[in-house]
Design brief:
Chain lengths: 421, 212
């Protein structure tokens, strides 16, 4: 099968060519072009040649990306295929790298708050919170009660929109063009409207501050949020009726991209992907940061660690987020929005270091800060869940077909702004 | 969760050769860390992961820190004879600290749900002896993060299965997160340069400068 395949896609010099071919790999391109005059040399993929000049295999190397619709951004996978099976896959990063950490080390603590929005640009609220949490740990600040509630509300709304979009993108990768993704975007837009009326920006919210939040809720915001939360279960039911028992989704996702529990832990996988492999580890429950100990919610866990479990975990997590939102929107107290002792200007934490982390939509988002007593952080590090969750992408893809690679990558949930930083 | 002192003794009981240091953290977070000698790092890491009481099976965050050569000033009280009377006088004591690179690992336990335990390793210097053992064999999650530290700080992780640049391109020469990194002087063209950019313009195109 691979023989005929290699001829049809035009690998120069089939087995007949090899005996005459010189052993210098650089010259093979011209030879191939001669033997197949209708092929441009640039389109002629060369098989790997080993030291003795023999063609070692019929493997095909392709670069998926950096501009490929399924990579959700500028991201490349160098894939080696045997027929249609993946035998090697190396992700290539850095197309969106702008050295976020260096820029943050050259500006004040507050100055990099708007820049955290651009990490995972779907979830600016959780990025803000993780950074604010790390700085609060470093400086010993405590957010006000009302701010804590607003943080929980905005973070859970962010989780809702992140998971909704992810499900939309995932089924898009399976070939469900348009419709589910547009349903997801319709719901996301309702949440973005809330964010816009709260912070002035749909996506780049820049809303949280050290010791609280930037502005108080506009009048009527809580009622609008309650209406969105109340309407969401109906959307989820509809979404699930459309997808959860869909034959194509089941066929494409069940048993695909299985990640074992042991490997998931050892490879530092976090977030829904970890819990889909059956590990009960949610930082909202483990660290109880903010005020998460006050809410009643459960952690859905998967059994098989395949793509379907990752899909299902996200749907179930959305339902749990709705529970938290209902409670938080009911209990939110009046009060100041920011700790009056927190300084915005001339903010200089004492020398020391702190690592703060939260459960963001994609996994553990952490910020590691070292202060030397100056207005700029001496060291500013983002622990990007998207990047680290890609560590085992190759392990999950080996032996699957190229079509499943896209589904598996889609189920990891990456945003390249955070992967490359 | 045990304190850093307890973990230090636990390690030293299990691995008598390893001399573990404690780095205090004076900030309100009070996250103290353990300084592990590079020669014993792999054994220490395996112990921390496999010890039934600690079970630090999850290496969350790996990062590098660059510490330049520095002059440390310390105020020391010294007894001195001032005008024939012995007095306690504050003196500033200066010590030279050679620079080094540091790699920091934040460890948690998914099984026991505790953490963080922070371990650090230091290189001998910032130039030719910037080697540290890789902990990827203990925690697979270090793989990309150690590559990133190698890329941005230039710490060479020995024993890493695939140590290549990850964010910068392969032909890139320097390590941009180092504190003494100098940005290349390849500013973008501006039609009406002024201030700093105008100075740079003169350097690049001396004939185009107004004076010429």
């Amino acid at each position: 099968m691979s023989q005929s395949r290699s001829n049809t896609i035009g690998i120069a010099g089939g087995t007949g060519m090899v005996s005459q071919a010189p052993s210098v790999p650089g010259q093979r391109g011209s030879l191939g072009a001669q033997s197949l005059p209708h092929h441009q040399p640039g389109y002629t993929l060369q098989p790997k040649v080993d030291a003795s000049g023999e063609v070692s295999s019929e493997l095909l190397e392709i670069a998926m990306g950096p501009h490929h619709p399924s990579t959700h951004g500028v991201f490349r996978m160098d894939v080696v295929l045997d027929g249609e099976r993946v035998v090697k896959l190396k992700p290539v990063f850095g197309y969106l790298h702008r050295n976020h950490e260096k820029i943050a080390e050259n500006t004040s603590y507050l100055g990099s708050m708007p820049y955290t929005d651009r990490l995972d640009y779907l979830c600016s609220m959780t990025n803000n919170w993780a950074y604010a949490l790390a700085v609060e740990k470093l400086a010993g600040l405590k957010p006000t009660e009302r701010a804590e509630y607003i943080r929980v509300i905005t973070a859970e709304l962010t989780r809702l929109l992140n998971h909704t979009c992810l499900v939309g993108f995932l089924v898009q990768d399976m070939g469900a063009m348009g419709t589910p993704l547009m349903y997801a975007f319709r719901e996301r837009e309702k949440i973005l409207d809330l964010f816009e009326s709260l912070s002035g920006a749909r996506m780049m919210c820049n809303y949280m501050r050290f010791g609280g939040c930037r502005v108080d809720l506009p009048p009527g915001w809580l009622d609008q949020a309650k209406a969105v939360v109340a309407s969401y279960p109906k959307f989820l039911d509809e979404f699930e009726a459309l997808l959860s028992e869909n034959e194509i989704l089941l066929a494409r996702s069940q048993g695909v991209g299985i990640l074992s529990r042991e490997l998931a832990i050892n490879a530092s996988i976090t977030g829904p992907m970890l819990r889909a492999s059956g590990v009960n580890y949610d930082i909202r429950k483990v660290d109880k940061y903010g005020i998460y100990d006050r809410f009643d919610f459960r952690i859905p866990l998967g059994e098989h660690g395949d793509v379907f479990d990752r899909y299902m975990i996200r749907v179930l997590e959305m339902r749990e987020s709705l529970k938290i939102l209902t409670q938080a929107l009911k209990d939110i107290p009046e009060g100041p929005i920011v700790d009056p002792k927190a300084k915005l200007r001339g903010f200089r934490p004492k020398a020391g270091e702190a690592y703060g982390r939260i459960e963001a939509g994609k996994g553990e988002l952490g910020f590691y800060l070292i202060s030397d007593g100056s207005p700029n952080p001496y060291r500013y590090r983002v622990r990007p869940p998207s990047l680290i969750n890609l560590t085992i992408l190759e392990d999950m893809c080996l032996g699957t077909t190229i079509g499943d690679v896209m589904v598996i990558l889609g189920s990891v949930d990456i945003v390249l702004g955070e992967v490359d930083r | 969760m045990n304190s850093v002192e307890q973990i230090k003794t636990q390690i030293e009981v299990a691995l008598p050769d390893a001399r573990i240091g404690i780095i205090r953290n004076e900030s309100p977070s009070a996250q103290h860390s353990l300084l592990v000698p590079a020669a014993h790092a792999l054994a220490v890491a395996k112990f921390l992961r496999d010890d039934p009481e600690l079970r630090l099976d999850y290496c969350s965050n790996v990062t590098g820190v660059d510490w330049l050569d520095a002059e440390l000033t310390e105020k020391v009280k010294v007894k001195k004879l001032v005008d024939g009377v012995e007095k306690e006088v504050e003196e500033v004591k200066k010590t030279q600290r050679p620079g080094y690179l540091e790699s920091v690992y934040h460890l948690y336990s998914m099984e026991k749900k505790h953490g963080p335990v922070i371990i650090r390793m230091r290189t001998e210097n910032r130039s030719d002896k910037a080697n540290l053992p890789s902990l990827t064999l203990v925690w697979r999650g270090c793989e990309f993060q150690e590559r990133e530290v190698y890329d941005l700080y230039g710490i060479v992780f020995e024993g890493h299965p695939d140590l290549r640049r990850i964010l910068m391109w392969d032909e890139f020469k320097d390590h941009p997160m180092r504190r003494d990194y100098v940005e290349p002087d390849d500013y973008e063209y501006e039609p009406t340069p002024h201030d700093e950019v105008a100075e740079k313009t003169k350097k690049h195109y001396p004939e185009a400068s107004p004076a010429a």
